[in-house]
Amino acid sequence: MRFGTVLFDFDGTVVDSGAIILASMRHATREVLGREYSDAELMQTVGGPGLEAQMHALAPDHVARLVDVYRAHNEPLHGELEACAGMEAVLVRLRDGGRRLGIVSAKRRSTVELGFARVPIAHLFETVVGGDETELQKPNPEPLLLAAERLGADPEDTAYVGDSPFDIRAAKAAGMFAVGVTWGRIHDRAKLEAEEPNVIVDSPEELLGVL
User: Fold this and answer.
1) Using CA atoms, how far apart are residues 168 and 180, in angstroms rounded to an integer?
2) 142-148 — which CB contacts under 8 Å span 24+ positions?
3) pTM metric for this prediction
4) CA–CA dist 116, 179 (Å, integer)
5) Which residues form the domain of 24?
6) Are residues 30 and 12 both part of a single domain?
7) Of the residues 55, 80, 105, which one is the last residue of a structural domain?
8) Distance CA 67, CA 54 (A)
9) Of 63, 80, 97, which residue sits at a domain end?
């Protein structure tokens, strides 16, 4: 066992939420701004320092309205969520193998709970850090370090698994083993490679060989 503690991003890593995020980003920008953005423009900051920052990058004068419209559209869509293919079985094997697991997400804690209501895997994680629980967000390491503190874990004995460049930067800043994953389809592999994680994997099953 290389790492006693393994922390995970939520969207695009544990749950297959890229499509509903994109749909809600598109809905909000159409309704509030009345214009079209490319998928890449809409998704470029997803997984980073929270929804407000994502909207600020698009239209700094309309952040509050964009966030409200996004959430009204997005939260009901959590009823359609599924776990990323193969992820639940891997989480069970990691836990049964003695790892302590946690979630660190840019989502508000209450929105993570919406996901868990649909994908019943909350019992596999000993802690959840939501985006509203720390002053600073990824790529700052504060949320990851809070999760490690809650678990009594040494960052050097901790891996962080995520699908965005922000996840990798946060893991490296926290002194954790940075694992980039490609199955989230929110950020492409080239963006992950540019951040120089410790490893990139293409399927949840590969995690068993690196963690």
Assistant:
1) 7
2) 143/104, 143/170, 144/7, 144/104, 144/170, 144/171, 144/174, 144/176, 145/174, 146/104, 147/7, 147/102, 147/103, 147/104, 148/5, 148/7, 148/174, 148/176
3) 0.95
4) 23
5) 18-80
6) no
7) 80
8) 9
9) 80
Q: What is the pLDDT along the chain (211 residues), one digit of tens a residue?
A: 699 999 999 999 999 999 999 999 999 999 999 999 999 999 988 988 889 999 999 999 999 999 999 999 999 999 889 999 999 999 999 999 999 999 999 999 999 999 999 999 999 999 999 999 999 999 999 999 999 999 999 999 999 999 999 999 999 999 999 999 999 989 999 999 999 999 999 999 999 999 9
Q: Return the CA Rg of the chain.
A: 16
Show Cβ contacts of residue 161 under 8 Å, excluding neighbours closer than 6 positions: 6, 7, 8, 9, 13, 167, 179, 181, 207, 211
Q: Do residues 86 and 41 share a domain? A: no
Considering its fold, how many domains does the chain have in total?
Answer: 2
Q: Let me know whether 125 and 40 are in one domain.
A: no
Supply 105's token pair. Answer: 């997400």
pLDDT, residue 1, reads: 67
Query: What CATH number corresponds to the domain at position 135?
Result: 3.40.50.1000
Residues 31 and 11 in one domain: no
Pair 76, 88 in one domain = no
